[in-house]
Give the backbone structure.
Amino acid sequence: MEQPQTGHPRRWAILGVLVISLLVVVLDNTVLNVAMRTIADPQHGLGADQGQLEWAINSYTLVFAGLLFTAGILADRFGRRLSLIAGLVVFGVASLLSAYAQTPGQLIGARALMGLGAAAVMPATLSIIANVFEPHERGRAIGVWAGAVGIAAAAGPIVGGLLLENFWWGSVFLINVPIVVIGIVLLVVLVPESRDPKPGRIDIAGVLLSVLGLSLLTYGVITGGEDGFGDVRAWASLAGAVVVLTAFIVYERRIAFPSLDVRLFSNRQFSASTGMVGLVFFAAMGAMFFSAFYLQLVRGYGPLASGALFVPFAVGQIVFAPRSAAMVKRFGPKAVSVVGLLLVAAGLFGWVFITETTPIAVVGALFFVMGVGMANVMPPATESIMAALPREKAGVGSAVSNTVRQVGGALGVAVLGAILSSVYRDDVTSVTQNLPGAAREVAEESISGAYTAAAQAGPAGQTLIAGANDAFMTALHWASVGATGFALLGALVALLWLPGKRPAQAPAPTSAEGLAEEQGVELVEA
């Protein structure tokens, strides 16, 4: 019997608007992977060193992750459409500031502001979908939403490459502005406002502690990679991060409306699933960071060609993610997740054997294997998270998963970037010792710096490039081993703690909202 169509009459048009709103957030992150080489160039970009490039990625990610819960509560309290519009306005302004940044520091600050805008956009889109679609259509709507994310992830490197081939580096941020304007206009015209009549309280102290703790942790890791972990700034930052994050956990356990409900982690299945998500994004995002330098510097590919080589990673997810649910139903979350993580680990470990002359098809194949693995990690992990919680906690569980994913990716870039930087610096000194002081310092900062110094070194430049490439490849191999280790750790977590078969049903609801939903009673929103 066909279900009655009782959702909002414009719900599918509204979904299209929400996809546009989300598109700009996803597109920008994948575009940045192919823009890093250009931003590092002192003549055509900002002359950013490796640490600054890591912060350009992580300033966005940390702010996004740190404010995700609070932004969701604010959207519920003041209006989800208002939150979406405000988030897009902030994102658009920050994109303009990023495009016209004059220094790496300005770019890092503008990217942090973009993270603030993205945090307002992401939870509001899902809340509006839940508000305008009835339960029997909601799964299909979220499937379209998730599919659009995958398409944007695949298109991002190509769009970025085309822009960088034809315009200056700031165009990869400027492209956001017309999308933002279109999204805002359509939101005003098509999307109804909605609010939660009983929104949660805003945990300001928790938000500040989490962002400060994660920032100290990331700063300590990046600084340690650049200057050694004996540097007072590195170990003092890491020690401060431990203190602040411990205080955050203790505080969150004691308040009624925490920004991150750490009590959820007492559920072993929930902890295992979110931990698995964090570990796989740690490994994958860190690998994306170092592979971008390999493609554009060691192999000499332009932005468009290197962007095209990232596409197999997204294609693997787009093709295999829709089939993952059937695999989970047949074999259970544990088996599918372990196989997926082992595929990710295999794709990462393959980089240990990559050289300066490896056929580029092999690189594309490794990306594809990683993408197929990711496609078989995220659906069972998400299902296990939802199955581990009472129904009314599904939104909280999803938000925790998103936060862990973002934090895992940020730490992956920081930690694997630190390995890359440390090993490169130790190995490259054999070819930089005869350079003038300033040139030596630039060449030892990163492989991008070595290429810059080589351009000014005359006939000795080729020797410097050859030595820098050798040092970078050694560093890349060690970073690949590190990434593989974290993917294997995720597989071990899945093997030990995920359920062997799909649970028959989620835990029973415990709140009035959950019981009402179970009994088919709709709680009316204001």
Observations:
- The CA atoms of residues 387 and 503 lie 7 Å apart.
- Residues 394-432 form the longest helix (39 residues).
- Residues 508-526 have pLDDT under 50 and may be disordered.
